[in-house]
Structure formats: structure tokens, C-alpha cells
Amino acid sequence: MSAADLIDVTEDRLARVQALVDPDSFTELGSQARHRVTAFDMQRKRPAGDGVVTGTARIHGRPVGLFAQDPTALGGSLGEMHATKIARILDYAARARTPVVGLLDSGGARIQEGVAALDGYGEIFRRNVALSGRVPQISVVLGPCAGGAVYSPALTDIVIMQRDRAHMFVTGPRVVKAVTFEDVSLADLGGAEVHASASGVAHLVADDAGSALEMTRRVLGYLPSSCWELPPPYAPGDALPMPAIPTDHRVPYDVREVIGGVVDAGSFLELQAAFAANVVVGFARMEGQAVGVVANQPLVLAGCLDINASEKAARFVRLCDAFGLPLVTLVDVPGFLPGTGQEAAGIIRKGAKLLYAFAEAKVPRVTVVLRKAFGGAYIVMNSKSLGADAAFSWPGAELAVMGAEGAVDVIYRRELEADPSRRQEVVDRYRAEAMAPHIPAQRLSIDEVIAPDETRQIVAATLRSLTGALRPGFRHDNLPQ
Ligand code: HXC
Predict the structure, then answer these.
(1) 376 labelled catalytic
(2) Sheet with 137-141, side-by-side order of all strands
(3) Annotated catalytic residue within 212, 276, 290, 377
(4) Are residues 211 and 264 located together in one domain of the fold?
């Protein structure tokens, strides 16, 4: 049996915790806690610890608070004592200003304890909210997490789900069947794939418990212990060579290759990769310092911003701002996704979240326009006017109210009706006179036009020069979006 399998079966109730934390660093608190319930013969089932392991430990040498639900004790179900133990650890972390990691694997509210169990969730949710933006909170879902219980992970900063074992849903397959007559499997309703791609609940998916715990350690490496500290420095690395991107603006490319040419090699950790893939977000490092990267992805929907992309990027920007990670924004955006579907679903209200998040952010903010930046999407993507500290553009980029084809149809409509053969001439003229990056550079909307292969060095130097703008302290929460 592999180490990963051992962790999966939780033969040892401490196995998952030990696999997560630094060796010999775990101090358990409340191992002898037992419920005092007598209803339904519960006095005969009083496992020590009440179905959850709680305590403090170190990860990468830094203190963390943690709780790990134990599915082998009362199904990991949450009763009053179980909830009190989790609430105590959240209070401990608030006072000690340390991250909290929760390993979730539970049958949900302990049915025999009724409303006392439900109130236990309320106590946890209230503390998740109180800690939001103050200390990092990471939820690792290693088994069932059903009913209202799902809202604790949803309130935390990062959700990691174990493929095949983790399930998250507000109402289970049986209730769905009773109410809507729809037959749906656990996996199709709330498996890791669904939450990684369709709902966006899961930031990361791991193949087994061992990799989920390894991912947790990696995520914590980008984050400070609290908003009152800076993220830990790592050894500086070099970037990969900057790839050439297609000059034809209609030809897609993978913006993650450009990210690779900007950040320290191997440091990029993409989050929510399969959800709203038209925008890429993730942690990385520049010269060993943690940063957050937001980039339009021309491979998907031509990099347009839509509702899901706006909400995904908005929450990421707020996460980075809360925990002092400078923002590096790479722009190649033709605009917001047009259509009745997006308008009716609230692209105005939801697109505003991204705009709000960037405008509000106090961390150092650098933008590079790679190929195009049009209209409202140009402004939203961390433009100078929204408060970016520095905005650069590559020489071939186009920045304008809209693309040339659409623009000439508006401003040369009469001329083109009279003489359609002039179309290419006016398109070329518009491109030259209204779209080239030296035009916004003349009025300081772009600070400098820079070559692709000097981008890494210029962004790194800019961030270095902005170190004084990194002022640890509480700024805001990380409200779910
Ligand atoms: C009390 C529970 C329990 C629960 C499991 N157990 N869930 N006890 N309350 N919610 C107990 C079982 O009785 C059993 O006890 C032991 O845990 C193991 O459970 P099994 O069913 O044998 O295990 P398994 O086959 O692995 O199935 C796991 C499971 C299933 C999928 C989680 O137990 C299940 O569906 N449980 C109910 C889930 C649920 O509907 N929960 C309420 C959700 S609503 P013994 O003594 O036989 O070993 C909710 C509201 C939260 O949580 C609201 C917050 C605001």
C-alpha cells in the first residue's frame, strides 16, 4: 500500500495531519473531548475527540492552526463538541495570527444532535467570516462535505478537492430526485470535476490525499501568516525565455507561456484552471517574492471577459490585496463578451466586481498590454486610470475604444457606403492613428513601450522599486464572489 493510500483510508486518525505538517510539529488540543448527548442511545457512542482532530503545528517552519475531521468516528459528523473544537482553533488562529487549514471529510450535521449541530456550523461560519482577509484559510475536502456544511469551505480563501473521494453539494442526489425528478450521481452533482470546471468552487484538484496535502503546503508558501506580515521570501530564480506570440491578432496562443517568460521558472501555480479559462489567475514569484498573476487567455473565447471570468479574477485580486501579493496583469483582451445571455445574467453588475477589486487594491500593481486592449475591458484590466503603478505595452499592441474593423464601420459609415473599396485604407489609417501604443504613451496611459524580451527584467525592477508600497495590515475581507 502506498503512502497516499494509507492517508486515504485514515487507519490512523492522525495520518493526514502528520502528512500535512512539518515532522514532530503537531500539538493536539482537545483529544479527550466527548459529546454529552444521551438521545438516541448516543451515550454508547462517545469517541475521544468527537470526530475531529484539532491542534497547532508548523508548515515550512511557520505556525498554523488546523482541524481534520475523522470519518472513522461517528462518520466525522459535526455535533456541538466537534464544532466547539473547530471554533476554538479558529479563535486560536485569530489571536496567534496564523493560517488555518481544515481537512473536511464528514457526514454533515450530526443528526442526533439536531439544532445544536446546525448552530455549530453557524459558530464556524461566523468565525470564517471574522478571519477573512486577516489570516489565510485553506479548506481541503477529502470526502463528503454536504448540506450547509459546504459554506465553510466557500467562505475560505482556497478550496482543494480530492478527485473521486470529495463531494460537495447543498442538496444530495436523493433530495434532488425527490424535488426535481432528476437522476444524478454524486460525482455529477458535486464531484471535484464539476467544482473545478463548472461551478468554480474548487481552486485545485488532487488525485489523492497525499497530493492534496502537498498542494496545501505549496499554497501556504505563497501566503503570509497573516495580513500583518509579508509573504515569505524564496530563493530568486530566472524566468524561462519569452516566447514569440502571433502578430496576427486573430491567432490564439497560450498566455501561460508568456507568464512563464515573466515569473521565476516553475513558480506559477494556476488556480481554477478549468473554470472561466478565458482568464488565467495564479500565484507565482518574481525574484523570490510572491505575486499574483491575472492574464487574459486568447485560447478561450478569444480572451473576452465574461461573468465567470470577472468574478474569478475579482476574488483573486481581492485575495492578493488582502495578503500583500503584488499584482502582475497581462492584457490581451478584445472586450467583454457580447450577447443577451451575458447582459441578462448581469455582466454589468458582475463585471463591476473586477473593476472594483483592481481599483480598490493597494498592493503594487503592474500591467503589460501584450497584443490588444479594447474598450471597457482595457480599463478594467488594471489600467493606469484605475490606479496601476506602472503600465507597459509591447510595440505591436493595439489599444483603442474598439477594434479597427468595428470602428471604421461607425466613423466612416457614409464614406464606405459610397466607396466600399476604401475599406482597407481607412482600417490601416485607424490602426496607425488611433491604436498604436505610442499614442496612449504620449498621454501617460502607458508608461513605456517595452520589448517582449525585456519584460521580465522591467516588471521585476518595477516591483522592486515598489517595495515601500507593501504595507502589511488589514485592508479588507475576501468576500465570496
Ligand atoms: C450522525 C452520521 C452522519 C450524520 C454519518 N453518520 N453521517 N451520524 N449524523 N450526519 C454515521 C453513520 O450512522 C455511521 O455510524 C457512520 O457515521 C459511518 O457512516 P456510513 O453511512 O456507514 O458511511 P459511508 O457509507 O462511508 O457513507 C458516508 C456518508 C453517509 C455518505 C457521509 O453516512 C451519509 O449520507 N450521511 C448522511 C449525510 C447527510 O445527509 N448529512 C446531513 C447533511 S445536512 P455507525 O454507528 O453505523 O458506524 C447538513 C446541514 C448543515 O449537514 C447545515 C449547516 C448550516
Answers:
(1) yes
(2) 27-28, 52-59, 62-69, 100-104, 137-141, 158-162, 204-206
(3) 377
(4) no
Active site annotation includes 148: yes
Distance 157 CA to ligand 1 centre (A): 26
Element (H, E) at 342: helix 340-345
200-238 residues labelled b (16+ CB within 10 A) or e (exposed): bbbbbbbebbbbbbbbbbebbbbbbbbbebbbbebeeee
Same domain, residue pair 14 and 152: yes
How much is the pTM? 0.95
Q: Whose CA is nearest to atom 29 of ligand 1?
A: 107
How many Å apart are CA 155 and CA 152, to the nearest integer?
A: 5
Query: What values do phi and psi take at 45, rounded to 5?
Result: -125, 90
Q: For residue 453, what is the domain's CATH number?
A: 3.90.226.10
| Residue that is written with C-alpha cell 496611459 in the block | 445
102 is catalytic: no
377 is catalytic: yes
DSSP 8-class letter at 235 = -
Q: What is residue 1's predicted lDDT score, i.e. its pLDDT?
A: 38
107 lines ligand 1 (CB under 6 A): yes
Specify whether 214 is located in the same domain as 284: no
Catalytic residue among 114, 122, 376, 406: 376
pLDDT along the chain (481 residues), means of 10: 45 88 97 95 94 98 98 95 98 98 96 96 98 98 93 98 95 92 94 97 97 98 98 96 94 98 98 98 98 98 98 98 98 96 97 98 98 96 98 96 92 94 94 93 97 98 97 97 91
